[in-house]
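Because discrete structure vocabularies remain unfamiliar, it helps to consider an illustrative case, giving the amino acid sequence and backbone structure tokens:
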Amino acid sequence: MSSTLNTWVEIPKQTDFTIYNLPFGIFSATDKSKRIGVAIGDQILDLVEASSLGIFDGLGISTSTLENDYLNDFIALGKKTTSAAREKIQSHLCDENSPLKSASGIFIKQEEAQMHLPVKVGDYTDFYSSIEHATNVGKMFRDPENALLPNWKHLPVGYHGRASSIIVSGEDIHRPKGQTKPDDGPPVFGPCKLMDFELEMAFIVGKETELGDSVSTDKAEDHIFGMVLFNDWSARDIQKWEYVPLGPFLGKSFASSISPWVVTMEALDPFRVTGPEQEPEVLPYLQYQGSRNYDIDLEVLIQPESHDEPSSITKSNFKYMYWNMAQQLAHHTVNGCNVKVGDMMASGTISGKDEQSFGSMLELSWAGSNTVPLKNGEVRKFLQDGDTVIMRGHAEKNGIRIGFGEVRSKLLPAK
């Protein structure tokens, strides 16, 4: 990445979508079917129109790949091609003589577009990779002195989630229903009473493997295309009753929300940092070289239905993750499990080291024993119907900003 890039596109200050970012997404508009776009400032560059001007000549990218319901076919072209396409876009947006500058209909305002789920998610895995989050949960529900289970520091704990209920930002969800177990009686059926969010990020697989193959930590990044923000909605009371012995099921599978723009790993490369020290030493297949964590600031806001201004309730950072993405993918495939383009793997709740950086209402309210203050005097222990949860994330260093936009969804009453 050049230290300084100047674009002829007018870009608002403090935008997430700078010339250094250029994330990919799927959008449609009044006169445009679903297709791939790139976010730049408050606009979207239509890649179907851009391709018609010849900017991707020689890269082997067909119109059908670009005019598509999902990014999967584009991602499957491989990093050599997708990175070259992104570099071509970046070059043209900095070239005063580019045909993009004078073409009509090639940019549209983001506010005039409809964003869609960026990838067709074949499979989804959720990890449990924040030591701060796992420790908090262990203190609340198991043993304050021995909060982590014996396996936690030896492998990235995870479970296979439900891909069909992953939705894009802007889609609202209904409070889920299910079985819960009161402390003083038999199980009952009804709406979840302890509704929560989980602040997470997710990576998207960009290169498939064959059944029986494993991906090493050295090669893992070849298989990761980019990242999104991820809200792993959680019904805590349903989960508490069901999760023994096989783990989360209905308490998680009703919905997970993601941001619409996929930020590439190339854009995030300048924000690499060293991860936490792993003690005891992990097994050889989980050992890695270099900086594999990323310094990405994260924030969660709640906007009650009763007023327009959201309240910031927590700020965390992706750099805290104990288990990094390369380790997650290496562990996921070490038994020969195959992965496919578009598969999504979420980080697990990302909590920081202090109470202002916890990544869920469960932790912020400490299982309901405390209240979380909002503006206008309102408080929460868990989410209420009508609450809109907003997650934002960005990385910034040496004057370069790379952001994810936001993922937002409103909690509606149970059907």
